[in-house]
């Protein structure tokens, strides 16, 4: 049996919002495996999805570079040890220069970056000299470049604090549509920066991931229903599914037949069923695609017009332009995403409360 430390309990508590003893018990049940402990809590409806951003301690900056022809976009993250260095003008320029270098040389791997030439010297030596200037360890943690194909366009957005950046590539029916869609696509980038979608569409989900998320979603709603019932408020409807990826034609046929049976039992005239059923099917999709609404870019409600999903907003914009717009690539970086926090004195406080 693995030792369950106060620091482990603290980390799980911060990332899930669950109670201290619930975290301790989950870690014991998972034999110290943090990922399994998160799943255990979520399956019991005791914790939200792990909020990685709340566990971040690594400092640094994200940078976004979009080429002049708006056919290529690059995003990078370079880490520093302290926020003080991250705000230094020399470090800011280093991040911008490195991002432009990655794009101009079409660099796709760390090895290519380290052996490339910048300002007449090997990048590895150039970067070491920058480290020496700051007196801190600096790391080019990650980077990615996306390209637009024929009749395509890229867009990018860097938040004002330079800690969050997004790049998107879209395929259009014509260069004319692509040129006119630029400003709108930048707004989609801003949406993604704020709302943190994981993927573009439900089609990008792994089915095993969806099964786990659906189980957690049901437990979360059931747990919330306990409080709603106590308060005398309307309860959440517990969905059978979490994503459109789990719903096939056979399931829709079954749902449609069930709805028809209900309409018949309610003595609704059959001649008006066609007017009622589409709305009921839409309601079924809304209830059973909540993971899509939370985690997919196209399924989220658009921050610029929260009466529409991003998918609907894109369709409306394409219709307004008289063309077609399809998102084909999406990348979002946030400084320190997925990195562990440093241990702090709060662990002693947790230990005292657990005693």
Automatic annotation (TrEMBL):
Pfam families: EF_TS. PROSITE patterns: EF_TS_1, EF_TS_2. Its main location: cytoplasm. Residues 73-337 form the Translation elongation factor EFTs/EF1B dimerisation domain. The keyword Cytoplasm applies. One of its GO terms (cellular component) is cytoplasm. Residues 82-85 are annotated as: Involved in Mg(2+) ion dislocation from EF-Tu. It is found in: Cytoplasm. Keywords: Cytoplasm, Elongation factor, Protein biosynthesis. GO terms for molecular function: translation elongation factor activity. NCBIfam families: tsf. Associates with the EF-Tu.GDP complex and induces the exchange of GDP to GTP. It remains bound to the aminoacyl-tRNA.EF-Tu.GTP complex up to the GTP hydrolysis stage on the ribosome. This is Elongation factor Ts. It comes from Candidatus Campylobacter infans. The lineage of its organism: Bacteria, Pseudomonadati, Campylobacterota, Epsilonproteobacteria, Campylobacterales.
């Amino acid at each position: 049996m693995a030792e369950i430390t106060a620091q482990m309990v603290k980390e799980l508590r911060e990332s899930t919002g669950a109670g201290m003893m619930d975290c301790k018990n989950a870690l014991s049940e998972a034999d110290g495996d943090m990922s399994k402990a998160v799943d255990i809590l979520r399956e019991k409806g005791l914790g939200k999805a792990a909020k990685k951003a709340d566990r971040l301690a690594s400092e640094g900056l994200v940078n976004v570079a979009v080429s002049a022809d708006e056919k290529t976009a690059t995003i990078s993250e370079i880490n520093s040890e302290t926020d003080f260095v991250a705000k230094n003008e020399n470090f800011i320029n280093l991040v911008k220069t490195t991002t432009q270098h990655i794009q101009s040389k079409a660099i796709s791997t760390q090895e290519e970056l380290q052996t490339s030439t910048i300002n007449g010297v090997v990048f590895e030596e150039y970067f070491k000299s920058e480290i020496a200037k700051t007196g801190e360890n600096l790391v080019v943690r990650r980077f990615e470049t996306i390209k637009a194909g024929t009749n395509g366009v890229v867009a990018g957005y860097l938040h004002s604090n330079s800690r969050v950046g997004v790049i998107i590539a879209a395929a259009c029916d014509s260069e004319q549509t692509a040129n006119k869609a630029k400003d709108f696509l930048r707004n989609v980038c801003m949406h993604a920066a704020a709302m943190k979608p994981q993927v573009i569409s439900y089609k990008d989900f792994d089915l095993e991931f969806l099964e786990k998320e659906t189980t957690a979603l049901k437990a979360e709603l059931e747990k919330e229903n306990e409080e709603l019932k106590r308060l005398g408020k309307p309860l959440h409807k517990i969905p059978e599914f979490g994503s459109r990826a789990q719903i096939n034609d056979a399931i829709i046929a079954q749902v449609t037949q069930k709805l028809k049976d209900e309409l018949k039992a309610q003595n609704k005239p059959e001649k008006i069923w066609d007017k009622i059923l589409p709305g009921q099917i839409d309601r079924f999709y809304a209830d059973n695609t909540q993971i899509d609404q939370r985690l997919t870019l196209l399924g989220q409600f658009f921050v610029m017009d929260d009466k529409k999903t991003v998918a609907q907003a894109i369709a409306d914009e394409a219709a307004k332009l008289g063309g077609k717009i399809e998102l084909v690539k999406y990348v979002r970086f946030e400084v320190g995403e997925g990195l562990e926090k440093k241990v702090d004195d709060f662990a002693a406080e947790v230990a005292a409360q657990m005693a």
